[in-house]
Specification:
The complex is a heterodimer. Helix content of chain A is about 65%, strand content about 5%. Chain A is built from eight helices and two strands. Classes of the chains: A mainly alpha, B mainly alpha. Chains A and B meet through helix 1, helix 2, helix 3, helix 4 and helix 8 of A and helix 1, helix 2 and helix 3 of B.
Chain lengths: ~240, ~100
Amino acid sequence: MIDPGRSATRFGFARLVLVLFSLVLALSLGVAVLSLPLTSVGLADSVQAKVPQSGVTNPVTAVLLNFRGYDTLLEVGVLLLAVVGLRSLRRPHEEQSLSMAAPGPILLALVRLLVPVMVLVAGYLLWMGAHAPGGAFQSGAVLGAAAVLVLLSGLPLASWFHGWPFRAVLVIGFALFLAVGVGAMVAGGRFLEYPREWAGSLILLVEAALTLSIGCILAALFVGISIVPNGANRTREHP
Amino acid sequence: MSLVLLYALAGVALFCLGLYALIAHAHPLRKTLAINIMGSGIFLLLVAVARRSPGPMPDPVPHAMVLTGIVVTVSATALLLALARRVHTETGQASLPEDSLE
């Protein structure tokens, strides 16, 4: 980390300037935070007034999927961009293998007990998102964690992460959300303006597709990072 | 000092600590961790600011922003780790070569 060829005093001076800069920044941000009023209504009342029209009863879900649905759409786009970037960092014509040690009996037993429960919890969180903390991203994260657990235990799940069916599942969340938004425009409103009586069902449909998509995206991110290119880590691979 | 102020100042402190570590360390893994800590500081600040609403329910808009921020942080971390891995595969070293200014 420290290049031995660099002179110590020059390196020390740069480090001191950096510490002073961070301190000054911390102090000015602290002063800005201290000057905020202790009580402020913010947007809570405005959101609470419109939540009954949004199709769900949980205010955070209403903000995330209805009032600021465009942010959520672009957020899923960011996730897809990460997967595309990851895939593009693989060298072509390279044999891919996940280098894993043989799983122990405790890990296998844990996987067999936990993964069905995690899938159930993901479905429960998706359903509860309408009236309690939950929703698409939370249940997608639990699904992704279940997939990572299965991958870490050496069970042959990585073979699912190739080919067109997997890519279709990756994209379906974003595609369905976009289709609902454009469909709302076609039906006479603005982009992503759900019709009032359909809002609850549309939000549930979009969240279900997003759950599946986000779980597969998170698992694909994990697989993409832990792929060992052919030729590397040869001495550490187990036969 | 109220609880809101305590959490907000802690968020500011985390942000500045992360910024220092981002610039001072050369290893890409440390830079990735520093970016994550900066993000956590900002989320703490946002949630603390949301708690200032007088009713029983906190302001839900910063909470939705934090959810979005967490997801974007996860994507950026994955991409950074893949980049660090690729740099290591190509050059054999952990980080990019230093410029020679002297």
